[in-house]
Inverse folding.
């Protein structure tokens, strides 16, 4: 039989390989797969994580299918290669979305070819296969690896076109390494940056972009790193966020929704992106103004107070616990009064003016608060924690999430007929 060189369009005969060869080699496949995987990982450590990660099963199936298809076409030259073709294209697409070039994948194919040749030489000696057969097999295998490489290149180019990026994607790979969350030696980053022709800065500023919007790459400064393949697209601006940067970025982000994180040292870039993404969430939920481009530095207090909503709830539960036995409306009124009183340290009249109630109402509420909280408001640390809880709840309330879902109803101002019985007439 002849094994054929398979391209997406047609098959070209490469040379005769006895059909019995497939029968000889099939028992070798499990060991061959393990040997290929081990040698690939030893040569390309980056692939070690892939073979142990969530995509490991698909990758191993792809390797197995590539080898099995070669043997299938020895046994039956008309056997379909559809599954192999799809998996090889997926490999190329995966490399594109991971921000890598095709260099590693092509190297992996070459390593697999070398391992297969070694194994066939061993099998050849066992079955006394001729030298001419070995040459024919090698020729067929090299052509087959060329087909795999071409299929992966097709998937890679297609993915890059979808991403709107050039085939050389070293800069996105560099960006992902910077944001990787693990300690990376500056020398290693410097080497990657050199390959990407990108001067390594001391400081960076990250920008989070809403998933449903995307700036035009051509409008961005040439030194801005981008990753639009991530489910949460983002940019890296080298250096501090100057007025010049702000102007150019505003132009590039026209029509997009984005948030700019704080400027940090290069090694803390992930923090800048985390703050930018949180700022975008706060803008989405109405806690802060939803400007086209929102700056984290303009909203530091909400970022801090609402950085961990579950913890805020626990703080509120502990330090506002004395009010838990009241009705929702009573609790809401007392929380408002306590927040303004602690924040302003104002007189009853000043607090009343902000609340729109009579000063006597404030005095009555403060007496209730004194009884409810006891020494808690006299202790500096406890008072500070109480104020934090009140401010955080107010920020949440500000965009429609009332604490405990209670309605925010305010007291009426007293009339002249109310005088003389304030304690009895003004409820909490």
């Amino acid at each position: 039989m002849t094994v054929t060189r398979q391209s997406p369009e047609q098959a070209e005969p490469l040379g005769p390989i006895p059909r019995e060869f497939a029968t000889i080699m099939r028992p070798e496949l499990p060991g061959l797969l393990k040997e290929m995987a081990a040698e690939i990982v030893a040569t390309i450590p980056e692939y070690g994580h892939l073979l142990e990660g969530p995509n490991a099963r698909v990758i191993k199936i792809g390797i197995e299918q590539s080898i099995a298809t070669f043997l299938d076409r020895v046994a039956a030259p008309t056997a379909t290669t559809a599954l192999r073709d799809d998996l090889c294209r997926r490999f190329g697409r995966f490399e594109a979305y991971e921000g890598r070039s095709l260099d590693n994948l092509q190297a992996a194919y070459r390593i697999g070819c070398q391992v297969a040749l070694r194994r066939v030489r061993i099998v050849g000696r066992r079955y006394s296969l001729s030298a001419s057969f070995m040459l024919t097999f090698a020729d067929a295998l090299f052509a087959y690896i060329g087909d795999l490489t071409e299929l992966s290149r097709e998937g890679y180019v297609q993915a890059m076109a979808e991403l709107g990026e050039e085939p050389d994607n070293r800069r996105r790979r560099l960006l992902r390494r910077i944001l990787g969350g693990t300690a990376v030696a500056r020398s290693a980053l410097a080497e990657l940056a050199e390959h990407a022709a990108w001067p390594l800065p001391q400081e960076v500023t990250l920008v989070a972009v809403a998933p449903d919007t995307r700036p035009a790459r051509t409008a961005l400064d040439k030194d801005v790193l981008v990753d639009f393949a991530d489910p949460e697209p983002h940019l890296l601006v080298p250096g501090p966020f100057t007025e010049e940067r702000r102007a150019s970025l505003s132009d590039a982000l026209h029509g997009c929704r984005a948030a700019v994180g704080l400027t940090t040292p290069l090694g803390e870039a992930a923090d800048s992106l985390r703050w930018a993404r949180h700022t975008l969430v706060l803008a989405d939920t109405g806690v802060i103004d939803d400007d086209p481009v929102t700056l984290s530095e303009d909203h530091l207090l909400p970022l801090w107070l609402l950085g961990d909503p579950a913890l805020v709830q626990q703080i509120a539960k502990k330090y506002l616990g004395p009010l838990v036995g009241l009705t929702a409306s009573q609790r809401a009124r007392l929380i408002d009064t306590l927040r303004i009183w602690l924040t302003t340290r104002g007189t009853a009249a000043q607090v009343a003016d902000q609340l729109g109630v009579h000063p006597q109402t404030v005095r009555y509420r403060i007496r209730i608060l004194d009884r409810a909280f006891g020494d808690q408001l006299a202790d500096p640390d406890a008072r500070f924690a109480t104020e934090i809880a009140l401010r955080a709840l107010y920020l949440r309330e500000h965009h429609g999430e009332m604490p405990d879902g209670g309605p925010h109803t305010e007291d009426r101002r007293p009339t002249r007929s109310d005088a003389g019985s304030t304690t009895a007439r003004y409820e909490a």
User: Anything to note?
Assistant: The longest strand covers residues 203-209. Residues 131-163 form the longest helix (33 residues). The chain has 18 helices and eight strands.
